[in-house]
Amino acid sequence: MVSQRFRDKHVIITGALGDIGFATAERFAAEGAKLMLVDLRSDDGSAAERLRSAGAPQVASAASDIAEEEQVAAVVERTRAELGGLDVIVNVAGMMIYKPSPS
Amino acid sequence: LTGADWRRILDVNLLGAAFFTTQALRHMAGGGAIVNVASIHARQTSALVAPYAAAKAALESLTRSAAIEGRQRHIRVNAVLPGAVDTPMLRSSPVVQSGAEKIDPAEVGSPADIAATIAFLASDDARFMTGASVLVDGGRLAKL
Q1: Nearest CA distance, B144 vs chain A (angstrom)
Q2: What ipTM describes this predicted complex?
């Protein structure tokens, strides 16, 4: 039995459809968290379904650009309204480009 | 590198976390935890990724600032600094593919390795940790 450190916790994960983001979501799901998945891409429902199967009592998702402050505020508002609170934020979203400084 | 490259990398890797931090300080009335995923590039880096390395170093700094500001509100803020993680992003990296960057297979972790540390930092097991950065890199940065 996995520990249930996040039972009754409301958790936002950004970059949730990426590799590290989704592994993080699976871990929190297994420990009972209610999840808000944030990603630039929209979930077709399969990520949420897998996380519910993994143990998350509630999963919501938002296709948002976290670089836009008003979209971040909207995600937080939705989390509080739909999940019923906010306890943890995991900022996974990131991106990398490979270019020399003088290109 | 163009100005647009720099701005987009800083926007996504740094400002996104900064905006969520502001929201947390405003709305996490009952306390809480934030975990920022930075990178070993915050500490040591390589060619071709200057904006990413700068953004991750700034994210590590933001973690400390947010920890100070969050303390009265009982909001803990910590960072995880992953090393090489077995993902398509790593395998498709031009510096890895060209052989310019060689990574010992023992120093490549899985996404679940990073997730386990994130969950620890977000949990009450880490109740006395805030403003900390945790390297999760299989020992890659420890050596000369």
Answers
A1: 25
A2: 0.97
